[in-house]
């Protein structure tokens, strides 16, 4: 499973999670910086990415349109890149299980150690 990190996340994260999520990328690396949400959503769908974002607009889009693409929604607020890396690494099994659930569209990862599928 490969993740597409939204522009509200550091582009350095992709390299730091590549061992767990090979093929992951950032919108900047895909030429999508400042692209509108619909374009990013479609790119993720067409290229089999799971989108990772803190943007509530993607959460709403996922509720409206479902998957694909799937969305990992981070409810972390602003914080250091290392915190996001640790959150994704700590929840890698949960993210993989989410990806394997044919009906799941949104996984919400709160900042706490517990995680709840959405």
Characterise this structure.
- By secondary structure, this protein is of the alpha/beta class.
- The protein has one domain.
- The protein contains five helices and six strands; from the N terminus they run E-H-E-H-E-H-E-H-H-E-E.
- A six-stranded mixed sheet has the order 2-1-3-4-5-6, with helices on both faces.
- The chain is globular, with a radius of gyration of 13 Å.
Give the arrangement of secondary structure elements.
Elements: E1 2-5, H1 13-16, E2 25-26, H2 37-46, E3 49-53, H3 56-65, E4 71-74, H4 81-90, H5 92-100, E5 106-109, E6 116-117
Parallel strand pairs: 1-2, 1-3, 3-4, 4-5
Antiparallel strand pairs: 5-6
Would you summarize the structure shown here?
Helices cover 36% and strands 18% of the residues. The chain is an alpha/beta fold. The protein has one domain.
The share of residues in helices is 25-40%
Q: What is the H/E string?
A: EHEHEHEHHEE
The backbone outline, from C-alpha atoms, is globular
Please tell me the total number of domains: 1
Low-confidence stretches: 113-118
Mean pLDDT: 90
- Give the count of helical stretches: 5
**Biggest sheet layout:** 6 strands, mixed
- Taking the alpha carbons of the first and last residues, their distance comes to 19 Å
Structural class: alpha/beta
Quaternary arrangement of the chains shown?
single chain
Give the amount of beta strand, in percent.
15-25%
Please compute the radius of gyration using only Cα atoms: 13 Å
Strand order of the largest sheet: 2-1-3-4-5-6
């Amino acid at each position: 499973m490969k993740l597409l990190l939204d522009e509200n996340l550091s582009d350095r994260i992709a390299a730091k999670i590549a061992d767990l999520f090979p093929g992951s990328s950032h919108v900047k690396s895909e030429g999508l910086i400042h692209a509108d949400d619909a374009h990013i959503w479609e790119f993720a769908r067409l290229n089999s990415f799971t989108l990772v974002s803190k943007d509530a607009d993607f959460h709403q889009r996922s509720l409206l349109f479902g998957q694909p693409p799937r969305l990992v929604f981070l409810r972390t607020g602003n914080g250091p890149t290392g915190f996001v890396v640790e959150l994704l690494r700590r929840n890698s099994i949960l993210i993989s299980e989410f990806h394997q659930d044919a009906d799941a569209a949104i996984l919400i990862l709160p900042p706490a150690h517990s995680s709840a599928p959405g």
